[in-house]
Input
Amino acid sequence: MTNSLDEFNDILSPDESLAQHTWLKLGGNAERFYTPTCRDQLLSLIRACVAAEVPVRVFGSGSNLLIRDGGVSGSVIRISDPLLSEIKVDGNAVTAGGGALLSHVVSESVRAGLAGLENLVGIPGTVGGAIVGNAGGRHADIGEFVRKVEVVTRDGEVVERTGDELTFAYRSSSITDLAVLSVTLQLRPDDSDDLTVRMKKIWIMKRSTQPLADQSAGCIFRNPRGLSAGALIEQCGLKDLAVGEARISDRHANFVVTGPGATSADVESLIDKVRIAVAEKFGVELELEIRKW
Ligand SMILES: Cc1cc2nc3c(=O)[nH]c(=O)nc-3n(C[C@H](O)[C@H](O)[C@H](O)COP(=O)(O)OP(=O)(O)OC[C@H]3O[C@@H](n4cnc5c(N)ncnc54)[C@H](O)[C@@H]3O)c2cc1C
Output
């Protein structure tokens, strides 16, 4: 039996400011913001939204989102630690809930002497967010370790995706389902101390090149094939370019950093300026890596 949406009012925050939940700290409100506390409640809520034909979006930890100033209509459901945050190690496989923080999964696997995920150190956000966007960097992407993903489809059904149903490309995946519930990653055994050293080295390198003390959403643009978006922006002389309280980081030109009072319109206008300058100078159309709601 499908529940009515009214039965979820105790986990509903109407007209919730999403700015407080996103890493850029800006943007409008969600008409209905739900914070489920367990898997069963999450599934019943999704099914109630589907039955009521209310549009649904899933929110992880907001580290890759630019929320428009006008906000978001319909339901936004938060899947983030402590919801679905279990991490289990079984042989060379690690299974993590979609709400687990990627950083926790990285450290658990390194502690267990399993190699692969140490390459993803320093990437904020949840496992669910990492899977849909195939999060990664210079040394690896999460998709290469994925063996199985458990999802909720847009009809509210729980399904396991494996094999050909799972494809990953640069910052994208074949998963277009509504929600990632859990992921099983296949890793390789290695020495835990060696992995810790490697992880620390990658982290130090990352910290020295990225503006991690500032408010940002990571890289704004995807790297065009064979090129670095940051280098193209830098070669246009745009480091430190600002619109309102949003500016191009002087540390890494593919990061937009925001200060108090920044609006989504500031960021969008800055993005447009960068795109125009790079297209004019290099004939390259930059595509967004962040997701705009
Ligand atoms: C300082 C900084 C550094 C970063 N460095 C990197 C980096 O090196 N490499 C990299 O790839 N990214 C990087 N990012 C971007 C970001 O961390 C990743 O994209 C991250 O995986 C997003 O996870 P999230 O939980 O915050 O997702 P959110 O921002 O909340 O959501 C992003 C998208 O994922 C979807 N989503 C989230 N959870 C689920 C779920 N359970 N089921 C289905 N869909 C879901 C949302 O609907 C949305 O479309 C960085 C960001 C910051 C702020």
